[in-house]
Amino acid sequence: MHLGNGYGTHGAWRMPWVDPTSYTSFDAKVRHAQAAERGKLQFLFLPDGPSYVADVDNEPPHYNLDVMLTLAAVARETSRIGLVATGSTTFNEPFNLARQFKALDVMSHGRAGWNAVTSSGEDVAANYGKRVPARPERYARAHESIQLVQALWGSWGRDAWVHDQASGQFARGDEVVPINLSGEFVASRGPLYIPPSEQGQPIIFQAGGGGNGLELAGRYASGVVGATFSIEDARSQRAAIREAAERAGRDPDEVKFFAGLMTTIADDKRSGLDRRIKLTEHTFAQRIPYLGQMLGLHLDPARLDEPLTQEQLAAASPSPRDPRSALALKVAREGWNLRDILAHGVIDYHPVIAGPPVEAADHMQEWFEAEAVDGFWVSPDVYDDGIDAFVDGVIPILQDRGLFHREYEGTTLRDHLGVPAQYGLDPRIAG
Ligand SMILES: Cc1cc2nc3c(=O)[nH]c(=O)nc-3n(C[C@H](O)[C@H](O)[C@H](O)COP(=O)(O)O)c2cc1C
């Protein structure tokens, strides 16, 4: 389950049943996490810039106030769900990342994950008074950073903490040792003074594509979150990640691929579309010209109530530059008017389901059975009621079809994802 700012998607903050101040509400975050945990979801995933790229006159900033503090609050009020936060390898020192994520892992009794990203936006870099380094440098630093972080996690020996009150020995000093690692970009002496959690140490995630991201995922990640709009593309992304893991000497089953899915769950298709119109209609005038580009047509924003004419449909050709274009054309051919075409979410970040729970369940089953994904990264439209709608509507269908568990298999994120034990560096990679 994706959790961004306090509300959900575009326009969520303006829905009459939403508290418009929940942007700063940690209580709201806790409620949303508890709803997801009631549905037995394996993990929450918090993206992060951190930057302010929003039209703040009209929309809340995209990101959470502070992902680590949010997950600390959530950790105290939940007991099973995994807690994955994004942290930049470019703009953080490995020692800080190692310390914060392992502390969260200990606090949550083994439920923490780190989505290691290199940050590609100049707006983020500017917050640190820097420019975004060239991609080779960003990824070289990322490899060094992840290895340093994992080495620091392992620097307090697994069994070093004896806390023996009778003898007075707190820990075995010879098992808490400096790492003394130094690379081209980052270095740390260590040790990190944090004992292992119930899962040993946090799990690594990676988000996004590209050859560099793939190599990073192949070596270190147990979970990859991707953006993909068709079963064929998802299948090839998943296969590429699995091959990258194999090249790194790992078992491909050690890395799970999660595709984004945005949900507007309603009683039926019409009310789903109406809900999305209510949420996103303020963007339509600006999106119609882009929809036109996707279809190779000139579309008039003043004619939202009309479907495409026979002539337009005959002349339309999906743009090869946008992977969403074929789906947009398919929806247009079904005869929906322009407003409803946009309400289908044809220009969103991930595939959109706007309709009854069974539609979401069918989509997930189809992609899963086609071996295109190991799971989904679900973004409900409005957190305040959209998480419950997903949990109460879609999860029982998936459970009845034997596609989703009815209970957590264990207590840690490592248990939930079936990730093999690891403490410190992965010896297969470190070599
Ligand atoms: C689904 C998805 C989620 C992402 N989440 C984040 C994020 O939370 N923070 C971030 O800085 N980058 C995020 N990214 C961006 C990628 O990490 C990556 O930087 C981007 O795809 C650009 O590739 P490059 O680093 O090779 O230039 C995400 C990408 C995708 C596809």
From TrEMBL:
The molecular function terms in GO held by this entry are: monooxygenase activity; oxidoreductase activity, acting on paired donors, with incorporation or reduction of molecular oxygen
The UniProt record lists the keyword Oxidoreductase: yes
Q: Which InterPro entries match?
A: Diverse_substr_monoxygenases (IPR051260), Luciferase-like_dom (IPR011251), Luciferase-like_sf (IPR036661), NTA_MOA (IPR016215)
Q: What residue stretches are annotated with the Luciferase-like domain?
A: 19-366
Keywords carried by this UniProt record: Flavoprotein, FMN, Monooxygenase, Oxidoreductase
Please give one Pfam family short name.
Bac_luciferase
Residues bound to FMN are D48, T86, Y139
Keyword Flavoprotein carried by entry:
yes
**Where in the sequence is the signal peptide annotated?**
none
Return the similarity comment.
Answer: Belongs to the NtaA/SnaA/DszA monooxygenase family.
- Name it: Nitrilotriacetate monooxygenase
**Annotated source species:** Aureimonas glaciei
Q: What is the lineage of its organism?
A: Bacteria, Pseudomonadati, Pseudomonadota, Alphaproteobacteria, Hyphomicrobiales
